[in-house]
Design brief:
The protein is built from one helix and 23 strands. By secondary structure, it is mainly beta. The longest helix is centred in the middle third of the chain and has 11 residues.
């Protein structure tokens, strides 16, 4: 077992179904899979601001119409929101420049189609829930909560060459855990994975828990996993602080509700020996 603590920090009113977050100084940026806004929460002032991403941005879209932004990632001075790709309406990427506030949208339909062909993942099983930029490549995380249960990651270089690597994740309550977010810290990938009683990328199931895990680079070896809850689905994590033997993250929770409230937690984990492979 990897020693850890998981503590509630605060609640944000005005945003629900949070699916990703990025901490920049004392400002927390968040996305919701029900919304087409980017949210900015100022920690000191405890105020929430909405950033419009589209002409017709909606705060609580219907399930069939939502863009399903499951990913918030940073590359340089830009934040990137990725649609999950689990339906044809969820194939957009939007960038937001932290300096000049410019917003740009890009259609990912063609790229997602190529990713499905390379990985042999069907339309109904495709579900992107994490992203990062490393070594001149985008790395996108396939959740694997569809019928085939295929979790893994895509590497996409500047030439749009694609490589897919399957990642075997452990189970929670006898149900396979699947990726819900990931980020790069130093030379390792830290990720969240959750288990639900459902084999659909579209329909939610009973929440069975979440785990934190770590992959090494460049071989994507599983360094450790540790179950952190058997009752909550954590869908986003961002780096908070690191000491000599401990790493701290902020996590956001998606409780599959339309209620516009979001709970933020702090997770602290003791860093294991890097030569260990541990499954908790």
């Amino acid at each position: 077992m990897i020693p850890y603590t998981l503590d509630f920090q605060f609640q944000i009113a005005g945003i629900g179904a949070t699916s990703g977050l990025v901490l920049k100084g004392d400002v927390l940026y968040l996305v919701s899979d029900n919304s087409s806004f980017l949210y900015q929460y100022k920690l000191q002032e405890k105020t929430l601001h909405k950033i419009k991403l589209l002409e017709d941005s909606e705060e609580n879209s219907s399930k069939k119409d939502k863009m399903d932004f499951e990913v918030l990632a940073q590359k340089g001075e830009k934040l990137y929101l990725f649609g999950s790709g689990s339906t044809s309406k969820r194939e957009k990427r939007i960038s937001y420049h932290l300096g000049n506030k410019n917003v740009k949208a890009k259609d990912l339909t063609s790229l997602y189609k190529k990713m499905k062909v390379v990985s042999n993942i069907s339309d109904s099983d495709f579900n992107i829930e994490g992203a990062m930029y490393h070594n001149e490549k985008w790395i996108l995380f396939q959740r694997g909560n569809g019928e085939s249960g295929q979790s893994g990651l895509f590497e996409i270089n500047k030439k749009k060459e694609i490589k897919f690597t399957t990642i075997a994740l452990p189970s929670i309550q006898n149900t396979k855990a699947t990726f819900t977010d990931a980020l790069l810290v130093d030379d390792k990938i830290y990720f969240l994975a959750a288990a639900e009683a459902s084999d659909s990328t579209y329909a939610d199931g009973a929440i069975l828990g979440s785990l934190i895990g770590c992959l090494s680079l460049p071989d994507f070896r599983l360094v450790f996993t540790q179950i952190i809850t058997s009752a909550q689905k954590f869908e986003g994590l961002t780096f908070y602080k690191k000491t000599e033997n401990q790493m701290e993250f902020l996590l956001c929770e998606d409780n599959d509700s339309e209620e516009l409230l979001s709970n933020i937690y702090k997770l602290a984990i003791q860093l294991p020996d890097s030569n260990l492979i541990h499954k908790g």
